[in-house]
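User:
Care to share a sequence and structure tokens?

Assistant:
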Amino acid sequence: MLCKNNENTGMIKKLINNGAYQKIAENDLVAKQRYNLFWFYSIFGTLITALLSYQTFFIFELKGFIPFLIPILGVMYILNYAALQFHKQFKLAYFIVIFSTLSLVHILTYFSGGILNPGMFYLASVVLLAFMLLGTRVGRIIFALSCIHLIYFYFISVHTSWVTNIISEDQLTQDYLVTGIMGLLILVAQINYLEGSKNIVIQNITKSRNELEEKNIELKKLSLVASNTSNAVIICDKLGYVEWVNKSFTEMTQLSLGEINGKYIEQLYTGPSLNNQKIIALRECVKSNNSYEGELLKVRKDDSKFWAHIIVTPILGDNGQMEKIVIIENDISEKKNSEEKLAEYLDSLEKTNKELEKFAYVVSHDLKAPLRAIGNLTGLIEHDAGDKF
């Protein structure tokens, strides 16, 4: 039993978390207000149909098939709201609630005095609901249908006996009072939702404007820094296509934004030092949202060569997805030239040292030979005439 209750609780939580309201974008305030109004109208329509069903069957004891349509419409309100949580077709659900309400008023009018039916007050709320939920075009259609409804019941009330009035003359005044108040309450609730939507939208616009102003200030600062830095700065979209370059990039490469705008990031790096491994490494870093750093020998527009140190950095959004790619290049030709000269000097020094070692060996060998001869001669003299000295 406990497991079954837990399963039911889990299903309810899943329905709430995956319901229609959860599928509305967080910043779509108008859609949220429309959904809230739809929810209110569905609840209100269900309560009204329940009350009317009670009056029809137990107070007025109306016979025939028409009274049975009222509770059916009440069930429609509930089923329509529940079905929306699964199919997520908002416009379809809104159409159903509007036409259900219009149908309810139409059915009631047949046995509520025809054109004298106090329920005609509800037509204004139905028209307003159509405008608010489905826009101007559908609102005009519902307005036209409401006018046709009024003309139709005026005609049959005057020229036919198709309509009846189950409300006694003593109850008619009271019914007008209750229906008028209920109709006004619905209109006030709708206007309140409309005013609330307007205020929320205005607040959201004001907040967005303030945030945009702050971002613009930051962007101006960043733009000023990026435009005037000595390093070349390239900004690409999330796919790696060039969107903007600063002045230093143009001076460094002799390429303007117009010449490389929309080009893929790999097309910026073509040169004698770019082998397949470097291209693959650059490509993989961009795809995997990782940074890339390296030194490349690039070619300017006039075919002159220069060394550049590049840093490729992905800019991630709040959701962790890449939004932009920023590339910073620094001309390190002087450094590389110095390194090459130093390498040449070390190579030359190494060769000189080897030559000196060779010279020392030769000199040492050449000096040792006569000294050895002198030593040998001295030894002979000492042997032959040593006792005479």
User: Anything to note?
Assistant: The mean pLDDT is 77.
